[in-house]
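Quick note —
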Amino acid sequence: MAGFPMEKIKPVLLLTGILSLLLILLFVTGNTNKEKERKVVSLITLDPDTISALSIKTGNRPAIQLSRTEGSWVIQEPLYSLASRKTMDSVIETLDKLVGIPLDMDRDSDLNEFGLQGKNTITVKTVDHQGNEQSFSLGNQIPLDVGYVYTYVPSSGEFYKAYKDARSVFDLPLEDFRDKTVVDISINSIESVKISGTLPGDMSPVIVEKQPPWWEITGPKAAPGNNGKVKELLEGILSLRTNDFPESFEENEGKSPELRIRFTSADGSAETVSFYSDYGDDLQYVKSDRVPYALGIPRGVIENLPVRFDELRSKAVLRFDPSVIREIILDADTERITLQKEEDRWYIASAKDIPVDESAVRHLINLLTLREVEDISANRELKKSDTSIRLRVLLREENGAEHTVELGETGERDFVPGFSSFRDRPFIVPAEFFDHFQIDTDFFEDKHLLSFESRNIGSVQIRGNREDITLTKSGSDWLLTEPERSAADSPKSWGLVFALEKLVYEERISPAEFGTSGFSADNPDYSISIKDSNGKEQGKLDLWLFKAEGEAVAVSSYRDGFFLISGELLENIPVDHRELMYRK
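Predicted structure written out below.
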């Protein structure tokens, strides 16, 4: 076989070699450029905690010069002002995380062309404690690269692209850099409050002191404080934010404030805030120790705060810490009820197997601690010896301390006189106040047959005469896992769980009544078991059905005895597992 002439093959081989070399160079160069593009550098390498001065210049507002001392930022130019902690935290965080991706641009490029000079430019300069200075400029958006802007670092003459979002942090209005907080103090650190001023009404200086767990009024006279009202005052003042920064305070110089509040902390430090007369249409002046200039807040704020003695003193029937109460005795004409707490549960003392409804106890405690009553005026005599006592309530703490309230009756029908261990003088309440007290064992008894929270349930098992059914929770949905595996109808499954959680009995029945009903104690129609996600038993319930009446007898692991039930639960128990299967 004749071969190809060598002189004809050589040019082809040479051309192939050249093309291969070009492809290799192109591949290497491309990868090099990609590697260069992927390389990122921090635009500011100073430790954020060491930055002591900062300058932010934009075309939308005057340059802002800031300095930091003892962790707080202060605006020095274009005016003196405390700086917003929130804004400065955002600025420092942005400086710490801001990176640039190098751009292959001529160092002699015209900066104006890329928005790196002129009114669209943002220039940021930082200085640390040692005097080291670093800066960068952010310019226009890069065409076809929407998320980035041109960036320039003068010290190196290098160009980068940086995230466009950084501009919005540095380009905030001057007002957003100013601290709008009126009083900067932790509510938990406040130990005393002194209130004075020239507002209409009795503005004798009121002093309130913390004596945990209560606030006590120590001036102008001693009185128990109203914790809720004191908290309302503190939160109202500490949440104040300025709406305006007045240019002048001259018209109020030398005047006494309408309201002055002095806060003293546990470490002995104090801060005072003073409210002055109005300025403008809807604002008024306020000054505080931490701010060396006047602020403006909405007019009328202080009129809605409890600042007077009568507004801050407690007017409750009793004052006690509910968490330490271990016994409650209600003694009325018709019945005497004793409630006792053991561990975390309340019981009716005469029948320890009967737990108490926690909501009924909360209702009683709220009635005694939250209901405000009025003292009988000093010129009106009312003695306990002249009053027929209809109800006496005694609360005993775990240390034996007692709190009592007694409600009586006189010849007048529109009010009820009362006497309390908490109050120096008798008080009166409307006659219907008696209606809030349920002196009835049935009211306090917890009639729930199971005690669990539906959110903690992992599975429900129903063992019946026809078949056994098991539901298992999966996230917020349910699976049918017995007698066959299938997705379950979640609304029906949750309906069953909620019916079990809310189940209450209608009446008790005696063992003898159960025995004469024809039921076999060892053969209930349904046995229901509730477990949590770890398989721990949360409750068991056995049911014997009255076929005709739509009722059932229940026995529960939560309490002893036989109970008659009806209603929602019986309607939610499936006769056949297919009722619980999910169907599209």
